[in-house]
Amino acid sequence: MSWIFAAVVFLVSMFTLIWFRISTRKELERIMSTHGTAVARLKKDETLRLERLTRESDSLKEDKVYDLVKELSTPLDALDEAIQFADKELIEGLIGVRNSIDQAFGRQDIERIEPKAGEVFLPNFHEAISSEPSDIERGRIIECLRCGWKSGERSIRTALVSVSSGREDII
Fold it and tell me: Rounded distance, CA 130 to CA 75, Å?
């Protein structure tokens, strides 16, 4: 009789163990699916947050560069003017300084906008402050009066230019 009792206890224990494993597995699957969705959502949120912070950081860097070039534009204009009116001995040194500054800006993807006569007028990078009769085709640049600066396709400061109104106005 004790062996029957032991067998019954064994069978009840086995059924209890099987039932517990099945219910535990179902609960574990439910928790994993719930938390798996939450983890996936958190990963997506983190990726989006990182992308947004990268964009904001890049924008702040661009704004800082933009502000710096704007601040340096007036002294650089003075340097360009000094080159125009300097002695022959001083011109080489001043041009060297200007070229060094241009190279430093170039390493930061900042370029001087200094259009030559006959180039196409680009409203994003040029500001026409006068229109004069000329042999140059109408709407093209006659002269650059003040250089500008750009970074990629973003204008930091437009170049001031004189634009041709064409031959018909020549007296």
Answer: 24
SS3 125: coil
Phi/psi zone of residue 45: left (φ > 0), alpha (ψ -120 to 50 degrees), beta? alpha
Question: Can you tell me which residue has the tokens 């250089």?
Answer: 147
169 in Cβ contact with 133 (< 8 Å):
yes
Per residue of the chain (171 residues), give pLDDT as tens.
Answer: 677 777 777 778 888 888 888 888 888 888 777 777 777 777 887 888 778 877 776 766 677 777 888 888 888 888 888 888 888 888 888 989 989 989 988 888 889 999 999 999 999 999 999 988 988 999 899 999 999 999 888 888 999 999 998 876 555
Residue 5: how many CB atoms within 10 A of its CB? Answer: 9
- Surface-to-core class of residue 119, CB atoms within 10 Å of its CB (0-12 exposed, 13-18 middle, 19+ buried): middle
